[in-house]
């Protein structure tokens, strides 16, 4: 179905309509080979509270934005390359139903559909687009994803020290490695995470764990380098012994040649 729509006028019109709804604040979406697979409203779990967002699934990207006027105007466009996406279903709770996680290298979050059927259809279509995209590009699924942040409303006290209560003055912070809500004293340090290009705020527990892993990797790399140097030194030593043996052999050969010459000289003299 997607292949049949690639160069169709209907697909081009639908994508142009999405572009016009975002206006000048959005990026150009109509490019060769791109197909609009589906669209709909999903509830996105934001930091403060759940909010409705308009989502557009293309065969290579997932786009979402704030709803200003339903089906007419959106803003704050976000574009996620599908090759970075990994989905994970969520169990229903007394407060949330029909949800799943959208994990990416830069940001991960939970979304919720209106019905179980809608959830299954969204997840099936997204996974199908990801599989087709990876198969055509020959790339592998990313194994590095950002942590899903715990919503502020689910943490009245620091999830690290279990003591500090959050108030209007004592702010909440999020650990970029585990997503926990923590206080300032429990997250004073930063660490360079695989999913980021610069050091990010992390809680003390994650900092200690990440530092331990990093130190262990450095020790392993240092031991490997030392072993390689020792092996190279041994090879050089073996090569030197070989050169000395060759020099001794040449010296012996020269001495034998001189003795033979002397013998012939004596014979002819006599």
UniProtKB/TrEMBL annotation:
Residues annotated as domain PH: 35-131
MF annotations from Gene Ontology: phosphatidylinositol binding; zinc ion binding
UniProt cross-references to Pfam families, sorted A to Z: FYVE, PH
Keyword Lyase applies: no
Region annotation (Disordered) ranges: 217-251
CDD domains: PH_Phafin2-like
GO terms of biological process kind: endosome organization; endosome to lysosome transport
One CC-aspect GO term: early endosome
SUPFAM superfamilies found in the cross-reference section: FYVE/PHD zinc finger, PH domain-like
Keywords attached to this entry: Metal-binding, Zinc, Zinc-finger
Residue span(s) of domain FYVE-type: 152-211
Biased composition (Acidic residues): 235-247
Residue ranges, compositional bias (Polar residues): 217-232
Name of the protein described by the UniProt record: Pleckstrin homology domain-containing family F member 2
Record organism: Chironomus riparius
Lineage of source species: Eukaryota, Metazoa, Ecdysozoa, Arthropoda, Hexapoda
């Amino acid at each position: 179905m997607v292949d049949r729509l690639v160069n169709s006028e209907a697909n081009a019109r639908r994508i142009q309509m999405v572009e016009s709804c975002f206006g000048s604040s959005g990026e150009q979406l109509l490019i060769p080979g791109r197909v609009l697979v589906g669209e709909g409203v999903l509830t996105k779990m934001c930091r403060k509270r759940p909010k409705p967002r308009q989502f557009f699934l293309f065969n290579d990207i997932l786009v979402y934005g704030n709803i200003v006027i339903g089906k007419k105007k959106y803003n704050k466009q976000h574009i996620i390359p599908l090759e970075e996406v990994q989905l994970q279903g969520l169990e229903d709770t007394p407060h949330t139903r029909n949800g799943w996680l959208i994990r990416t290298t830069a940001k991960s979050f939970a979304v919720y559909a209106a019905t179980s059927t809608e959830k299954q259809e969204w997840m099936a279509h997204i996974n199908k687009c990801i599989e087709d995209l990876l198969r055509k590009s020959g790339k592998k699924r990313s194994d590095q994803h950002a942590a899903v942040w715990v919503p502020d409303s689910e943490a009245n006290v620091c999830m690290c020290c279990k003591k500090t209560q959050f108030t209007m003055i004592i702010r909440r912070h999020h650990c970029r490695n585990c997503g926990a809500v923590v206080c300032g004293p429990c997250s004073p340090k930063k660490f360079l995470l695989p999913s980021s290009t610069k050091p990010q705020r992390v809680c003390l527990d994650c900092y200690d764990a990440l530092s331990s892993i990093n130190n262990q990797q450095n020790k392993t790399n240092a031991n490997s380098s030392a072993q390689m140097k020792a092996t190279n030194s041994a090879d050089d030593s073996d090569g030197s012994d070989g050169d000395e043996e060759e020099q001794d052999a040449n010296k012996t050969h020269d001495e034998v040649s001189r003795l033979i010459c002397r013998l012939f000289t004596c014979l002819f003299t006599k």
